[in-house]
Amino acid sequence: MADGDDKGSDLRGDERQQPPHKTFSDVAKAHRWDDFKNVLKEEPCAREGLIYGIASGVGVGLLHFVRNGRPVGAGNWAVGTFAAVAICAKQLCHYQKVHQRSKAHTLLEMQSKVATHVKGFEADQQDGDKSRGGK
Fold first, then answer.
1. Are the CB atoms for 61 and 81 separated by under 8 Å?
2. Cβ(74)–Cβ(65) under 8 Å?
3. Can you give the pLDDT at residue 132?
4. CB neighbours of 40 closer than 8 A, spacing ≥ 6?
5. Distance between CA atoms of 57 and 34, rounded to whole angstroms?
6. Where is the sequence biased in composition, kind Basic and acidic residues (predicted)?
7. What is the C-alpha to C-alpha distance for residues 104 and 112, in angstroms, rounded to an integer?
8. 24-36 burial, b for 16+ CB within 10 Å, e for fewer?
C-alpha cells in the first residue's frame, strides 16, 4: 500500500512555476517612445501601412458615427478598418519592394551579359584588325 501512496503523491506533485503575470502598465513602462521611432525607421513599409490604416480607420469610423450615431460601434469599425488596411498596405508595400528588387537583379544580370558580349565583340574586332595588318 505504501507503493500506491507514492504513486499518488507523484501524480499530485505536478507543480509548474508560472511566469509572473504582467499588466499593460508593466509592458508600457518597459518600452520607450524611441523604440517605436526606431521601428518606423528600420521597417520601411511600417510607416506607409500606419498612414493608410489611420486615415482609413478615421474615415470609416466617422462615416459610421454620422450614419448610426453610436460611438462604440463607430470605434469598433474604426479599429477594425485600421487593422485590416494597415496590414494589407504593409504587405502590398513588401510585395512591391520584392518585385522591384527582382526586376533590378534581372536588369543587372542582363547588363553584365551584354557587357560581356560587347567586350567579346570588341576583342574580335581588334583581332581582325591585327590579322589584316592594321593597328
1. yes
2. yes
3. 61
4. 46, 47, 50
5. 25
6. 1-18
7. 12
8. eeeeeeeeeeeee
- Mean pLDDT (whole number) for 33-56: 82
SS3 for 34-52 is HHHHHHHHHCCCHHHHHHH
Worst-scoring range by mean pLDDT, 7-21, 35-49, 68-82? 7-21
What is the predicted pLDDT for the residue at 127?
67
Q: What is the pTM of this model?
A: 0.56
Please report how the helices 46-68 and 33-42 are oriented relative to each other, as an axis angle in degrees rounded to 10. Answer: 110
SS3 96: helix
Among the listed residues 91, 27, 19, 101, the one whose alpha carbon sits nearest the alpha carbon of residue 53 = 91
pLDDT at residue 117, as a whole number: 77
- Neighbour tally for 108: CB within 10 Å: 10
C-alpha cell at 30: 518597459
Q: Which three cell numbers stand for residue 46?
A: 511600417
* Chain-centroid distance, C-alpha 96: 12
Within a 10 A sphere around the Cβ of 67, how many other Cβ atoms? 10
Q: 111-129 pLDDT, tens per residue?
A: 888 878 777 777 667 766 6
